[in-house]
Design a protein that fits this description.
By secondary structure, the protein is an alpha+beta fold. The chain has one domain: RRM (RNA recognition motif) domain (Alpha-Beta Plaits). Helix content is 17%, strand content 29%. The strands form three sheets. The chain has a three-stranded antiparallel sheet with strand order 1-2-7. The longest helix is centred in the middle third of the chain and has 10 residues. The termini are close together. About 30% of the residues have low confidence.
Length: 105
């Protein structure tokens, strides 16, 4: 999973390599979620940042996975992350943004 010292700021910095991140969150179970302003950035993140090395501000590292999620009825794309059969669904935040959440190994 994400290193215990991994923060939302670390996640935002890492995922920013693929585009403009407007929201990032890290949960206690080692799962994170990132929201991009543009769909193209999310799609690029899915390609470029899957299976990449994540480094926290304290220097702890882990490899992360980025997974696409099914489209929603709100007309925008989201991506969901999961790790070998264990997914955590996300509720819509009600805004037409693009999400690229992921779960580390």
């Amino acid at each position: 999973g994400l290193p215990p010292s991994g923060s939302w700021q670390d996640l935002k910095d890492h995922m920013r390599e693929a585009g403009d991140v407007c929201y990032a969150d890290v949960q206690k179970d080692g799962m994170g979620m990132v929201e991009y302003l543009r769909k193209e950035d999310m799609e690029y993140a899915l390609r470029k940042l899957d299976d990449t090395k994540f480094r926290s501000h304290e220097g702890e590292t882990s490899y992360i996975r980025v997974y696409p999620e099914r489209s929603t009825s709100y007309g925008y794309s989201r991506s969901r992350s999961g790790s070998r059969g264990r997914d955590s669904p996300y509720q819509s935040r009600g805004s037409p943004h693009y999400f690229s959440p992921f779960r580390p190994y």
